[in-house]
Amino acid sequence: MTSGPALRKVDSHSSIHEAALNEAREITDILEELLKKEQYEKALETAYIGVEHWETRTLQHAASEEEGLYKELAEESAELNEAVIGLTRDHDLLRLLVEEIKELLGTEGINDQVLQRFQALILVDVLHNQEEEKILPEH
């Protein structure tokens, strides 16, 4: 599978990341406010919206990168193999955090641990995007 042109251009790729990340930040901020106000039912709904967002936006995008762009980059340059492995590991961490959130929501409901994992998702994604953009301009 070859990657689409948007994935290979740093500006458009960055825009994809930034849009999804801004939405994730908004959802997480809303979740934090609802928890502070002890509005647990709305917070629980918001957490599930957050999970859906990460699964359908960021993780779906990550899968596309792994199936196309990352394979292409690794094939083009052996020097990029290590970077591709690291970027794929970042995706795995995002998937693990989302799974932990779903498990926590199912067993304990909404709590600060869920919020912390959403905040961790954002941090990992920011760092991941910075690393990914370092290798994109060259290609």
Automatic annotation (TrEMBL):
Keywords: Coiled coil. Residues 63-90 form a coiled coil. This is Hemerythrin HHE cation binding domain-containing protein. It comes from Natribacillus halophilus.
